[in-house]
Protein backbone atom coordinates (compact mmCIF):
# COMPACT_ATOMS: atom_id res chain seq x y z
CA UNK A 1 0.00 0.00 0.00
CA UNK A 2 1.30 3.46 -0.84
CA UNK A 3 2.08 6.02 1.82
CA UNK A 4 -0.33 8.98 1.85
CA UNK A 5 2.18 11.43 0.41
CA UNK A 6 3.15 9.04 -2.38
CA UNK A 7 -0.49 8.34 -3.18
CA UNK A 8 -1.22 12.08 -3.27
CA UNK A 9 1.53 12.64 -5.83
CA UNK A 10 0.33 9.65 -7.85
CA UNK A 11 -3.13 11.20 -7.96
CA UNK A 12 -1.66 14.14 -9.84
CA UNK A 13 -0.44 11.96 -12.70
CA UNK A 14 -2.24 11.82 -16.02
CA UNK A 15 -5.64 10.24 -16.40
CA UNK A 16 -4.12 7.48 -18.53
CA UNK A 17 -2.98 5.78 -15.33
CA UNK A 18 -6.53 5.47 -13.94
CA UNK A 19 -6.47 1.67 -13.61
CA UNK A 20 -3.13 1.58 -11.81
CA UNK A 21 -4.36 4.37 -9.55
CA UNK A 22 -7.46 2.33 -8.70
CA UNK A 23 -5.42 -0.70 -7.75
CA UNK A 24 -2.73 1.21 -5.81
CA UNK A 25 -4.64 4.11 -4.29
CA UNK A 26 -6.10 4.62 -0.86
CA UNK A 27 -9.56 4.14 -2.30
CA UNK A 28 -11.68 3.32 0.72
CA UNK A 29 -15.30 2.77 -0.20
CA UNK A 30 -15.80 3.81 -3.80
CA UNK A 31 -17.53 1.38 -6.11
CA UNK A 32 -17.55 0.98 -9.86
CA UNK A 33 -20.69 1.69 -11.83
CA UNK A 34 -21.55 1.62 -15.54
CA UNK A 35 -20.54 5.28 -15.86
CA UNK A 36 -17.15 4.85 -14.18
CA UNK A 37 -16.12 5.43 -10.60
CA UNK A 38 -18.61 6.63 -7.99
CA UNK A 39 -17.35 9.66 -6.08
CA UNK A 40 -17.74 8.77 -2.42
CA UNK A 41 -15.72 11.49 -0.67
CA UNK A 42 -17.42 14.86 -0.18
CA UNK A 43 -15.88 18.17 0.94
CA UNK A 44 -17.21 19.52 4.24
CA UNK A 45 -16.93 23.10 2.94
CA UNK A 46 -18.17 23.07 -0.68
CA UNK A 47 -19.80 20.78 -3.30
CA UNK A 48 -16.47 19.17 -4.34
CA UNK A 49 -16.52 15.35 -4.53
CA UNK A 50 -13.82 12.86 -5.41
CA UNK A 51 -13.16 9.17 -5.63
CA UNK A 52 -9.92 9.31 -3.69
CA UNK A 53 -9.70 10.24 -0.02
CA UNK A 54 -6.22 11.71 -0.48
CA UNK A 55 -7.62 14.14 -3.09
CA UNK A 56 -10.27 15.23 -0.60
CA UNK A 57 -7.69 15.84 2.13
CA UNK A 58 -5.58 17.93 -0.25
CA UNK A 59 -8.64 19.86 -1.47
CA UNK A 60 -9.92 20.62 2.03
CA UNK A 61 -6.58 22.26 2.83
CA UNK A 62 -7.57 25.00 0.35
CA UNK A 63 -10.39 25.85 2.76
CA UNK A 64 -8.58 25.36 6.07
CA UNK A 65 -5.21 26.82 5.08
CA UNK A 66 -3.50 23.87 6.76
CA UNK A 67 0.10 23.39 5.62
CA UNK A 68 1.29 20.24 7.39
CA UNK A 69 4.61 19.87 5.55
CA UNK A 70 7.43 22.13 6.74
CA UNK A 71 10.98 22.59 5.52
CA UNK A 72 13.67 21.66 8.07
CA UNK A 73 15.96 24.35 6.59
CA UNK A 74 13.68 27.41 6.54
CA UNK A 75 10.15 28.60 7.34
CA UNK A 76 8.60 27.26 4.12
CA UNK A 77 5.38 25.28 4.64
CA UNK A 78 3.14 23.61 2.07
CA UNK A 79 0.05 21.48 1.63
CA UNK A 80 1.66 18.55 -0.21
CA UNK A 81 4.71 16.44 0.55
CA UNK A 82 5.75 16.34 -3.12
CA UNK A 83 5.93 20.17 -3.10
CA UNK A 84 8.16 20.03 -0.03
CA UNK A 85 10.50 17.58 -1.78
CA UNK A 86 10.81 20.02 -4.72
CA UNK A 87 11.47 22.91 -2.32
CA UNK A 88 14.16 21.06 -0.36
CA UNK A 89 16.20 20.73 -3.57
CA UNK A 90 16.80 24.49 -3.30
CA UNK A 91 18.74 23.85 -0.09
CA UNK A 92 20.49 20.63 -1.13
CA UNK A 93 21.40 21.71 -4.65
CA UNK A 94 20.18 18.36 -5.99
CA UNK A 95 19.50 18.49 -9.74
CA UNK A 96 18.11 15.11 -10.75
CA UNK A 97 16.82 16.19 -14.19
CA UNK A 98 19.57 16.10 -16.82
CA UNK A 99 19.55 17.13 -20.47
CA UNK A 100 20.49 14.34 -22.87
CA UNK A 101 22.06 16.84 -25.33
CA UNK A 102 24.23 19.06 -23.11
CA UNK A 103 25.49 19.38 -19.52
CA UNK A 104 22.36 21.26 -18.33
CA UNK A 105 20.81 19.93 -15.11
CA UNK A 106 17.79 21.13 -13.16
CA UNK A 107 16.07 20.58 -9.84
CA UNK A 108 12.65 20.65 -11.55
CA UNK A 109 11.31 18.64 -14.45
CA UNK A 110 9.42 21.71 -15.75
CA UNK A 111 12.70 23.60 -16.13
CA UNK A 112 14.24 20.75 -18.11
CA UNK A 113 11.22 20.63 -20.43
CA UNK A 114 11.56 24.36 -21.04
CA UNK A 115 15.30 23.96 -21.66
CA UNK A 116 14.69 21.17 -24.19
CA UNK A 117 12.93 23.67 -26.47
CA UNK A 118 16.36 25.23 -27.12
CA UNK A 119 17.53 21.96 -28.65
CA UNK A 120 14.31 21.53 -30.64
CA UNK A 121 14.81 25.00 -32.19
CA UNK A 122 18.48 24.25 -32.97
CA UNK A 123 17.63 20.92 -34.60
CA UNK A 124 14.90 22.53 -36.72
CA UNK A 125 17.18 25.20 -38.22
What does this structure look like?
- The protein is an alpha+beta fold.
- The chain has 2 domains: 4-63, no CATH class; 97-125.
- It is built from 5 helices and 8 strands; from the N terminus they run H-H-E-E-E-E-H-E-E-H-E-E-H.
- The protein has helices spanning 4-11, 18-24, 53-64, 81-92, 109-124, and strands at 32-33, 36-37, 41-42, 49-50, 69-70, 77-78, 97-98, 105-106.
- The protein has a two-stranded antiparallel ribbon with strand order 1-2. A two-stranded antiparallel sheet has the order 3-4. A two-stranded antiparallel ribbon has the order 5-6.
- The termini are far apart.
- Mean pLDDT is 78; it is low at 1-34.
- This is C2H2-type domain-containing protein.
- Pfam families: zf-C2H2.
List the keywords.
125 residues; alpha+beta; flat
Topology:
Layout: H1 4-11, H2 18-24, E1 32-33, E2 36-37, E3 41-42, E4 49-50, H3 53-64, E5 69-70, E6 77-78, H4 81-92, E7 97-98, E8 105-106, H5 109-124
Antiparallel strand pairs: 1-2, 3-4, 5-6, 7-8
